[in-house]
Amino acid sequence: MTTPQLDITGDVCPMTFVKVKMGLHEIAPSGKLNVRLKEEALKNVISSLKTEGHRVTNVSREDGIFLLEVTKAG
Amino acid sequence: MSEAGFKELKKGGMMRQAEAGLFSVRLHVVGGRLATPQLRAIREAADRFGRGEIHLTTRQGVEIPHVRQDALSALKNFLEPSGVGVGVCGPTVRTVTACQGCRVCPSGVIDSPELADMVDRELYGKPVPHKFKVGISGCVNNCMKAEENDVGIKGWIEPLREAPACTFCGICQAVCPTKAISTSGDGLALIIDPTLCIGCGDCITSCPSGNMREKNRGYRVFAGGKFGRRPSLGKRILGVLQTKEEAMAAILAVLDFFRVHGKAGERFGDALQRTGFPALETFVKQGVGRP
């Protein structure tokens, strides 16, 4: 099964955070979600993910856009 | 009244107004915090002895303007039972400003009001070569403008990168607001430039692997700032101090240095232009007992 992808490169805080939260709502515990985001959103998105117990399990980058593989809390 | 008489009154927080015979009375407030009974007493005092007007100063102080000279001591006596003292002006250690600190503010790193109370108890109103202001910001967002004070303190988070699970994902470098993090030439290490790091902790908050962690969380000291006619910003001295006692010792040492090297009527920042910062740092390090 391919990992679902969420693109929040066109969003600004707090929608970045809200969309990731909603995206993860659709995912089963310990499941994965790929999130495409811009540099500005990194800090708030990652800190809120960590606060809620999710993990960023892989990071890649293309043309200034970050791609985070988020593993939902189990 | 003689000029000398006015000066004495001013030192005691009673400032002559433009209109002859009237004074604006400065009150003793620490970090902008007042209990409601104190506020009630101040309101009542302004009604009785002033014109029902209260001035909130730029540095979190409170003044009651339009008080007649012959009512000054009655005003002082009226406020005393509520625990509100009269403030200071002139060549003294002035109102200590502080934010609400880590007990209230989610961004707070240090307990600013706690340190403000310590500084106030030890130093408020003490004579110095020229007015001396202390301001305490709980974090690097710096609401209290540490660099505008003769001594400013900021809550500070010093990052430390631990190698084991770092994947060089680049997030810490991307989020760092001052670009203080770089990759070494061989690509095998991350280097944090301590002169660029502003102690915000964003790299720690954002690190996916938990490899960036807190090395120190504490107090950073800035010296020699002022505003007024010729503003200049304070510069940071020493490393990150870990306890309020160390921060207090640093402030005391800075003040001792000013007492030795300062001239009457010269702000601390100007004295530092003559002595240079290294002399201050050497002196203060001895005072704090730190290398």
The CATH homologous superfamily of chain A: TusA-like domain
Structural class of chain A: alpha+beta
Number of helices of chain B: 9
What is the structural class of chain B?
Answer: alpha+beta
Biggest β-sheet: strands ordered side by side in the sheet of chain A = 1-2-4-3
Give the strand tally of chain A: 4
Taking all Cα atoms into account, the compactness measure Rg of chain A is: 11 Å
Mean of residue pLDDT of chain B?
94
Read across the widest sheet of chain B, the strand sequence of neighbours is 5-6-7-10-11
Show unreliable segments of chain B: none
Descriptive report:
The complex is a heterodimer of chains A (74) and B (291). Chain A is an alpha+beta fold and 74 residues long. The model of chain A has no long low-confidence stretch (mean pLDDT 93). Chain A has two helices and four strands; from the N terminus they run E-H-E-H-E-E. The radius of gyration of chain B is 22 Å and the shape is elongated. Chain B has helices spanning 3-11, 36-49, 72-79, 112-123, 171-175, 202-206, 244-261, 268-275, 277-288, and strands spanning 14-16, 22-26, 55-56, 62-68, 97-98, 134-137, 151-161, 181-183, 190-192, 212-223, 235-241. In chain B, the strands form three sheets. Chain B has a five-stranded mixed β-sheet. The mean pLDDT of chain B is 94. Chain B contains nine helices and eleven strands. Classes of the chains: A alpha+beta (74), B alpha+beta (291). Chain A binds chain B through residues 39, 42-43, 46-47, 50, 55-57, 59, 61, 66, 68, and chain B through 167, 169-171, 174-175, 202, 205-208.
Give keywords.
heterodimer, A: 74 residues, alpha+beta, Translation Initiation Factor IF3, four-stranded mixed beta sheet, 2 helices, 4 strands, 34% strand, globular, B: 291 residues, Alpha-Beta Plaits, Sulfite Reductase Hemoprotein, domain 1, five-stranded mixed beta sheet, four-stranded antiparallel beta sheet, 9 helices, 31% helix, elongated
